[in-house]
């Protein structure tokens, strides 16, 4: 995938990943500083989700050409008024993904009525990290793309976030009674850590690639 | 094909090893160091100032907040006495297995009986240790006992008059107490007793039935209050020195049971009413330990402290005794405790206690001389001496009570080693795909040689560690270890000799299954689950781990199917069809190995149909099963941390009335639909009888329950007929050649189907009323998942080992869904008395075990039934059994190692050991399943052979 992108797009990608890193570290820092106080942590998590989605939207707006080929083809095919329809569809799918994530989290054992705010914050976070971002980048065909392993970046990020969130549930039953064991902080922190890990991985990949490019240029 | 026989033998060996391990967790009773002297004689001169009449009222499962720390006037008379200072109340802490027998022993001996006494709770033997009852009897006091007959098992000959009531009819809570109280009217006024022991069971039974919030608790406590008031008033009128002790043997958990170690179970109330104690109201509720009661009673009644007691006498209660005497008693008690500490090899911290004791003894002697010169003076000095002695006692007693257990380490090491060896063999076999590989027949001489070698080894080990119990041939542990080791040796010998022969003839592993990501996820999850048992909190919350994994598995499978669907429908259409082609081809080749498969085609789907997966249907079923998991998970809250939260079962019970009826009926209809395919009239009768058990048509549910039992037995016998295992028209019909292979399979699957139905009905019958709906959902999930997993495994989405592991998770999930946990508290005793009018310990035990492990067993069986009915080859379902066994054996071995390593852990007796018992029970469940399948298979084969030779 990286071969197809131009230098401008690569720079943007690097910038995006660095920003992701900064946001992630920032929200973790906020949560730690607040002493894992639930209400403020939930607030910062929601703000973080919104920020991440906004970042993705801005990136998409800046690099319309670098988005996946399928959506480009689709755009070429369709008329202009269907762009609004497309946006509407993406929003609809995003809302659906949040609701779907919420349902899955409940199926995993979260309370149905109790703590609904916490659960919803978690599903908002996970959905925005794992589903809404690919939806913005890839358009409505994101689901199929993800399933068919066509876009590596989105897939790896979504996968990392989902697995990390899943693994974040493990410390919950331990009887240490620490403040960070409160639902949904472990899973949220897991999700952010997964996101950070994926970002670092991409930066390292881009850096090594960039390094070779620069070497080639120097020769 | 070796079939299941090696597995059965191996399971016997493992069970023997586990039992040997359990016998290694022994109690070494603390003995005073030095020569055993006649302690009974030593105290004989104390009796001149003792209490003359003693009444001990034991109220089973009396919580601390029922009497001593109660906020509301639950027992008004006694609470009034407490408030006025006439009575002394204590919150009493008991030791871990909060079951009646060990607690009674603790009450009378002042020692902490071992954890393994819980096994003896059903079959109690005579208590041989020194205790207050024996001392009373030896002193010639007449002891009367009315109440729980556990006392009679422990003291068969000490009571001059007794009337036992049996403690196992949990459903009865009025008669059982009336039988005790009716004796009081005759006995109390008379003068023919010195010690009166009453043990009331009603409160415990109410707890088991309805929990501590039941409306029945209040009247019961009032009744107890009235009984004690009656006793107290009568004794006051007599004018003798008396002592009334009202105490519970253990507490009651917040869910109503007992046996575990939650705070409300290990705390109970004790109340002393006497005219010999000084009236004074303490500012706050005092605490004591159960082991303190025996020495206190002993000193108050002048019989001395029992030899093995690790408790300390409660100082405040002895204050009425003249100073000189009191100091002597305290000194004696402290000396005894120090002797015990020395005898059990306890290292007291820094030897301070000995020093304190010596100094106090010097002070004591001085004061005694002072007192001789001036009998009135030095009152505070006496108090100081008593306090110092008390401090000594406290220190030693605390140290002793926490370190009561010891281990027979040689036995434990050897048993662990044997289990590890067996596990290694099992894993080796599984990796090689060996269970179906030809194996050299084990001959008698090999066994003889191995037994001889084991015997030599035993001699060597015993030469080194002669102190172990293992070296006494009369102890069972020696024989159990012997069995396990002979198996290990034989397995080693046969594998080493056969591996040279069968190296080349190892046939290609048929149907290896696709070992893909799902398979590795299942492996990973199984390992993680086994490893999670190393931590106490994860043992307590084991169900969370399992629920989590099961849900993940569902989602993963759904994801995988959708993904495959997309890939298939997309560009790689050709790849998909080619994949299917190879799949069906492999099926074909694998089927060629099995002659029994030839007739399959007409009865079942054709091979092509088999490989094709109706994805939408499967997805729908998986989603339904996922939702079912969530509902089942919310039905019964279990574990430790979130146990108290309200669950669906609680809500149903609270709603009661029409909603509950609706849920029960819905559950029964659902189970009827699932179990329809066997003989439906019998199923219908049984289900109606199950309904009648909860909502009786006649007086009580007993008759209906008996009808249900009858229907279930009829169903099973009918199944035997159907499977032609019992044939009245013996061999009248000669089977045709074409049917030859068919007969056996038909027999097998028919019989298994009927067994499944009968067992499901039995479990439905035994469930609590709010759990009927839950069990029907479990049956539904079994039905769904055994089909789905079979289909998925057939279509290569999942390896067969993976399917087995998934079912094993599901079985455990269902175990916890029923409300069971890893604590002994949650065993539902009332299940043992459904439709049983008389007392048969074995029957009750079987019924309780069926109720507890029914869900697990049914899940395993459902998958086997489905496999056996769809697939004529025995190898497939036998392999499932092998996989289950391997997983179970690995878990158990790991756990046994864990207990060995963490034997000094703080929670070893409250968390790890109960879990060890449960792990053993799960091994037994699997053994029972294997044994049943083995028996069914053998009988079917045998009958088929006789048919053929007709």
What is the 3D form of chain B? globular
Strand content of chain A: under 5%
Q: Ends of chain A: how far apart? A: 25 Å
Strand order of the largest sheet of chain B: 4-3-5-1-6-7-2-8
Assembly form of the protein: heterodimer
Output the radius of gyration of chain B: 32 Å
Query: What is Rg of chain A?
Result: 18 Å
- DSSP strand count of chain B: 8
Largest sheet of chain A: none
What does this structure look like?
The complex is a heterodimer of chains A (219) and B (950). Chain A has 219 residues and is mainly α. Chain A is 76% helix and 0% strand. Chain A has 8 helices and no strands. Chain A has helices at 7-33, 38-62, 69-77, 81-107, 116-138, 142-147, 152-167, 185-218. In chain A, helix 5 packs antiparallel against helix 7 (152-167). The radius of gyration of chain A is 18 Å and the shape is globular. The two termini of chain B are 25 Å apart. Chain B contains 34 helices and 8 strands. Helix content of chain B is 61%, strand content 5%. By secondary structure, chain B is mostly helical. In chain B, helix 6 (150-154) links the parallel strand 3 (143-148) and strand 4. Residues 35-45, 500-513, 570-610 and 732-744 of chain B have low confidence and may be disordered. Chains A and B meet through helix 4 of A and helix 19, helix 20 and helix 24 of B.
């Amino acid at each position: 995938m990286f071969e197809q992108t131009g230098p401008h797009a690569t720079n943007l990608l690097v910038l995006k990943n660095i920003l992701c890193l900064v946001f992630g570290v920032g929200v973790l820092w906020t949560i730690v500083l607040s002493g894992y106080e639930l209400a403020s942590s939930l607030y910062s998590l929601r703000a973080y989700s919104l920020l991440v989605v906004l970042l993705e939207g801005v990136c998409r707006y800046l690099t319309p050409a670098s988005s996946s080929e399928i959506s480009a083809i689709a755009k070429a095919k369709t008329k202009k008024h269907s762009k609004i329809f497309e946006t509407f569809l993406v929003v609809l799918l995003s809302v659906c993904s949040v609701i779907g994530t919420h349902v899955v989290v409940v199926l995993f054992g979260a309370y149905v009525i109790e703590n609904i705010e916490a659960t919803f914050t978690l599903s908002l976070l996970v959905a925005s990290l794992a589903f809404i971002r690919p939806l913005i980048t890839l358009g409505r065909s994101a689901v199929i793309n993800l399933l068919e392993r066509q876009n590596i970046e989105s897939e790896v990020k979504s996968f990392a976030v989902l697995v990390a969130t899943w693994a974040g549930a493990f410390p919950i039953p331990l009887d240490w009674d620490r403040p960070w064991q409160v639902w949904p902080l472990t899973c949220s922190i897991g999700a952010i850590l997964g996101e950070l890990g994926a970002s670092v991985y991409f930066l390292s990949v881009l850096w090594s690639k960039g390094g070779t490019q620069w070497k080639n240029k120097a020769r | 094909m070796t079939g299941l026989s090696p597995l059965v033998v191996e399971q016997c060996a493992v069970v023997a090893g586990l039992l040997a391990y359990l016998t290694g967790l022994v109690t070494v009773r603390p003995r005073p160091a030095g020569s055993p002297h006649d302690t009974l004689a030593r105290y004989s001169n104390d009796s001149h100032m003792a209490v003359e009449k003693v009444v001990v009222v034991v109220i089973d499962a009396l919580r601390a907040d029922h009497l001593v720390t109660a906020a509301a006037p639950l027992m008004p008379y006694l609470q009034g006495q407490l408030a006025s200072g006439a009575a002394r109340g204590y919150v009493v802490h008991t030791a871990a297995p909060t079951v009646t027998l060990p607690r009674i022993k603790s009450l009378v001996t002042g020692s902490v009986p071992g954890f393994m006494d819980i096994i003896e709770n059903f079959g109690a033997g005579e208590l041989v240790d020194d205790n207050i009852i024996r001392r009373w009897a030896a002193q010639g006091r007449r002891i009367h006992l009315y109440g729980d007959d556990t006392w009679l098992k422990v003291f068969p000959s000490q009571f001059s008059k007794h009337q036992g009531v049996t403690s196992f009819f949990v459903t009865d809570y009025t008669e059982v107490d009336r039988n005790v109280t009716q004796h009081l009217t005759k006995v109390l006024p008379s003068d023919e007793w010195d010690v009166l022991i009453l043990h009331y069971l009603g409160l415990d039974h109410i707890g088991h039935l309805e929990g501590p919030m039941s409306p029945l608790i209040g009247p019961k406590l009032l009744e107890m209050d009235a009984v004690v008031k009656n006793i107290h008033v009568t004794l006051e009128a007599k004018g003798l020195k008396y002592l009334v002790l009202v105490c519970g043997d253990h507490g009651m958990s917040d869910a109503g049971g007992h046996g575990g170690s939650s705070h409300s179970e290990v705390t109970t109330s004790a109340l002393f009413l006497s005219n010999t104690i000084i009236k004074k109201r303490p500012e706050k509720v005092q605490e004591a330990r159960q082991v303190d009661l025996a020495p206190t009673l002993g000193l108050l009644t002048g019989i001395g402290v029992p030899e093995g007691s690790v408790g300390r006498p409660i100082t405040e209660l002895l204050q009425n005794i003249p100073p000189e005497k009191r100091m002597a008693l305290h000194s004696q008690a402290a000396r005894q405790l120090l002797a015990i500490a020395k005898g059990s090899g306890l290292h007291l911290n820094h030897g301070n206690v000995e020093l304190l004791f010596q100094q106090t003894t010097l002070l004591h002697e001085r004061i005694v001389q002072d007192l001789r010169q001036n009998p009135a003076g030095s009152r505070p000095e006496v108090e100081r001496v008593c306090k110092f002695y008390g401090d000594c006692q406290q220190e030693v007693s605390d140290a002793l009570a926490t370190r009561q257990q010891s281990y027979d380490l040689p036995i434990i090491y050897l048993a662990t080693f044997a289990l590890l060896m067996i596990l290694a063999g099992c894993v080796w076999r599984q990796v090689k795909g060996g269970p179906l590989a030809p194996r050299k027949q084990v001959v008698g001489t090999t066994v003889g040689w191995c037994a001889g070698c084991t015997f030599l080894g035993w001699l060597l080990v015993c030469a080194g560690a002669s102190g172990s119990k293992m070296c006494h041939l009369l102890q069972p542990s020696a024989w159990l270890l012997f069995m396990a080791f002979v198996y290990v040796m034989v397995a080693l010998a046969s594998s080493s000799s056969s591996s040279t022969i069968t190296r080349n003839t190892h046939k290609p592993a048929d149907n290896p299954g696709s070992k893909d990501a799902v398979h590795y996820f299942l492996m990973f999850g199984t390992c993680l689950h086994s490893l999670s048992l190393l931590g106490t909190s994860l043992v307590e919350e084991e169900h969370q781990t399992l629920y989590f994994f099961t849900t993940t598995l569902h989602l993963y499978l759904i994801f995988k199917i959708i993904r495959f669907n997309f890939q298939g429908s997309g560009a790689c259409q050709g790849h998909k069809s080619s994949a299917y082609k190879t799949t069906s081809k492999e099926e074909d080749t694998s089927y060629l190995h099995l002659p029994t498969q030839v007739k399959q085609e007409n009865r079942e789907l054709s091979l092509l149909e088999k490989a094709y997966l109706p994805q939408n249907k499967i997805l729908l079923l998986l989603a339904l099963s996922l939702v079912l998991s969530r509902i089942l998970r919310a039905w019964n809250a279990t574990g430790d941390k979130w146990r108290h939260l309200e669950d669906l079962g609680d809500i149903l019970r609270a709603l009661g009335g029409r909603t509950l009826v609706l849920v029960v009926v819905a559950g029964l209809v659902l189970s009827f639909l699932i179990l329809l395919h066997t003989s439906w009239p019998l199923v219908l009768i049984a289900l109606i009888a199950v309904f009648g058990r909860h909502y009786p048509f006649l007086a009580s549910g007993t008759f209906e329950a008996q009808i249900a039992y009858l229907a279930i037995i009829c169903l099973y016998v009918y199944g035997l007929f159907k499977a032609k295992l019992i044939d009245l028209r013996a061999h009248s019909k000669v089977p045709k050649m074409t049917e030859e292979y068919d007969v056996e399979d038909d027999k097998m699957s028919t019989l298994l189907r009927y067994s499944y139905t009968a067992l499901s009905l039995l479990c439905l019958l035994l469930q609590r009323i709010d759990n009927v709906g839950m069990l029907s959902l479990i049956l539904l999930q079994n039905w769904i998942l055994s089909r789905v997993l079979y289909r998925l495994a057939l279509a290569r989405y999942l390896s067969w080992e993976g399917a087995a592991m998934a079912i094993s998770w599901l079985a455990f999930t269902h175990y916890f869904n029923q409300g069971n946990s890893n604590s002994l508290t949650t065993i539902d005793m009332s299940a043992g008395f459904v439709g049983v009018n008389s007392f048969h310990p074995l029957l009750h035990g079987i019924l309780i075990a069926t109720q507890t492990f029914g869900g697990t067993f049914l899940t395993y069986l459902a998958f086997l039934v489905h496999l056996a009915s769809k697939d004529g080859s025995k190898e497939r379902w036998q392999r499932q059994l092998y996989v289950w066994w391997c997983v179970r054996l690995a878990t158990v071995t790991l756990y046994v190692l864990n207990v060995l390593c963490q034997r000094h852990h703080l929670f070893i007796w409250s968390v790890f050991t109960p879990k060890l018992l449960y792990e053993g029970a799960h091994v037994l469940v699997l053994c029972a399943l294997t044994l049943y399948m083995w028996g069914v298979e053998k009988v079917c084969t045998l009958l088929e052979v006789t048919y053929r030779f007709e």
